[in-house]
Protein 1
Amino acid sequence: MEKPIFGYILGFVFSFVTIFEGMYVLSKLYPELFRPIPKSTPVLAMVDSLKLKNDSLGVIWEDTSSIGLEYVEAYKLDSLKSLYNEAVAELKRYKDSVLVLNKIINELKAEIREKNLIVERLQRQVLNQQDEKIKAMAKIYESMEPEAAARILESMPENEALQIILNMQRRQAAKILSEINTAKASKLSKLK
């Protein structure tokens, strides 16, 4: 019985040494075959010991001989995920800023509309007051002697004189125009 057990033990040891030696040779030729693909946290700890250089295209490794390519790829993937998350956070901040700015712009537009309405109302009031003033002046000139009213209207700016004449009764306006010198009367007739 001793011979078969010794043969089994010898066969097992020979097989173990052969397999172990084969794996050792293969691990030297193809190191990535026997290394597991790492998870994010161990990769970061492992990569800290490596020298990295940033380039415009991304991360370039100065020494990758100590770890397998899967570690490098996993680290690059983790780096890209981190950059993506940072970009998404930055975009969210910009979106929030844009929303706040749009709200401010809309509030300012509403305020401008309100102020424009106030300006329009005030302009109408000013025009109404000017019309009332012109009508009052026209009544005063109507009650004056045509010669005296003509002398005063001749010395006024043409637009003002025309507005006053247009607001008079036709007969009185005609009497006053007949007393104004012909050049000035002609200019007043041509104004619109």
Protein 2
Amino acid sequence: MAEQRPLPRKVAATAVGRCLLTTLRLLLQRRIHQPREHVGLFLRFADGTEGRVYRETVIDRPPPADPCVLVVAFRLRGAGHVLFRWESLFNTPLFAGFPGLISKLWLAHDDSATYRGFYEWDGAESAEAYARALWRILELVSAPGSIRYHVLPGLHRDDVLSKPELQEPADSFSWWRLVGTR
């Protein structure tokens, strides 16, 4: 994977602006849903951490032609975790309209105050473009140097949840690699 860095601010702002307009259309068409199927599920990662799913967002779209999983992580600056999880509901317009988004599992912070998003996308390039634009929003609330992402091309989110061994091999420090659920 190439060096991770955010998009230039103007490019990210333009992408988020387009996203907001698309999100409005999706909301008016009632294509954004928050099922509870995965809420409460714990996802365990290769680095020994785990996070509990506290929200799920799904966009009504055709099945992905080029599926991939995107894992995004960041450490919240400060200790306002309850407020952040509540307020994150209002962040939906900042991501739901990005091209290719299928679903997002919102994970509560782990023991190191790291939050994760566990997504399914249609297209690895779209997923990476989103992660690089999102970076500009996350840097406002994140501890410096804590934002990172990993794209897993060719995989569906639910397949990875049920069979983590489908992912590429990785070492025991791979913060992004799902090893199980409970």
Protein 3
Amino acid sequence: MLDRFQAYINRYNPIAEGEKVVLALSGGIDSMVLADLLLKSKVDFVVAHCNFHLRGEESDGDERFVCDFAERNGIQCFVKHFDTEKYAAGQGISIEMAARDLRYAWFEELRQQLGYDKIAVAHHADDQAETFFINLLRGAGLNGLKGMRPQNGAIIRPLLWASREEIHQYAVENQILWRDDHTNAENLYLRNKIRNQLMPVFDELQPEARQGLYKSLAHLFSENELYRELVKEKLTKIVKSDGVVQSIQKAKAPEPVEGPMLSFQLLFEWLRQYGFNTDQCHFIFEALENGVGNKYYSPTHQLVIGRNELQLSEIKSVVDEEIQIGAGEECIKKPLPLRFSTIEKTADFVIDKSSNVAMLDADKIRFPLVLRHWRHGDRFHPLGMKGSKLLSNFFVDHRFTESQKESVWILTTFENEILWVVGHRIDDRFKVTNSTKNVFVCTIAV
């Protein structure tokens, strides 16, 4: 296996000579085998371990195990602790997605801090197969079905060629110690269900079923690369740009034809680069003929359906004024007559529920605050709702007109957490509760 690993490194060059690597080391069998292979290949690396505090003492045991391994081998070890459940709840996402976001963000931060070149993770061929089925169930296209890339920016996956069985055999033969995660045997997550329930049935279909799947995935990867080149070539021919606005003609010229010239796939491939999702692209495609004047937004761009063409432009910030509010100020007269104060929550306290008043837990707020217009991509937790919501979707739900969206004011913390969509809804995270001691009162003077 060491020979195959080194042959893979030499062939695909994920780790060039002299490059330094941050190894994501969980303590599980896959990452411990990768650590052994890197050591034997004399790669210069440090280890990075995430303690997500999701399995109590087991999580702490994994941390000690990784640190002991690093110390025995003279390798520098970095550990990061996360309150994963709090982060997941705050972002309105699953624990699994939260852990993924947290670890990759930290790995990249650490890589840049150290001045290292690559981040090595221990995904292998069976992970690739499981990812295929996950994306298949989610309705992914060719780009999703092709699986993970051997290298994606600074992230490298030097074990994608190896099966779980090969990794286990290598670990046993080389007396490599590892930590088992008992949650891998539980079927709480889709990936575990695929691993523990679907793949054993798949193996029973015919001999070497997995090997056939691995080959298919390799073909999909190569075909996707060709597809990407062809799409790029096609879009280069039909997308026009004046440096500010990009456009695509809706109908073929000069021949009159029925319907739009664009296939859905071409439209999707054009717009996905600018943050538009699949559902949005379906809506846009269906509106091509009858939706003249319709506007659609991604976090960074605006698309307008014109009479003869689609026009795409970058969204410029709609903030024309941004007022910072200090804790000691009592009134903002420009641009909005806004008064605020802090009061003690007494036994006879009653929340004012009028639209001109926002009452918030003062001890959860850090000054200075910011009063500004909304920005595309703004997200908050509307009062009474679990999880977060895009502010643009809140506007749609409450039938805001374009002029209302552009004129509404947003009160935020300096860290850009929304406290109040002024005159409409506060953020649930800052609401007054039974444990609140001091109340921050914001009032629109009418």
Protein 4
Amino acid sequence: MTKIMGAKTKFKNINTYANRGMTLEADIQASNDYYLVNDKAVIYKKPTPITISKVNYPSRREAIIKEGFFRTPSTTDYNGIYKGKYIDFDAKETKLKTAFPLNNIHPHQIKHLACIYKHGGIGFLIVRFTVLNKTFLLPIESLMKFLDESTRKSIPLSYFEENGYIIKDKYNPRVDYLSVLDMLYFDGGNL
């Protein structure tokens, strides 16, 4: 503690990104905005397919949605194009320190990402272990391998460390997943 002008002040470590107060989704949105503004990629969050069934109109200019339902199960959160390739991915967070629960990924999402891969696109998960402040990109190929070879109900952190790719926190873009895609698929990677 340091006294500044008679007030006690506690200084925080300003060199860490651990307490930014941002969620993974907000970080990815900021990254996607950065990519778009800097003409690197065009990637958007998909809207959730909802059908509105009841609306209240208190006046001509105001409408209040009172009731709605999900039309179809949503596939993944994000899609777009990067260096001429279609990319599609989902973002997940967990507060667990040692594993990522598979019930956080719906079977139709896995099937969707597998179809993207089958047809030549790039599919992956971005998973953040919030307590550890570690964010990983896990290609769909690695996820499918885990599902084929394991009966576990969660993916251990060690699997992410061995088969995934760490996405380092940065100022801009916050979640620079394109640098991982460059390494894997574009700069001498699989493409």
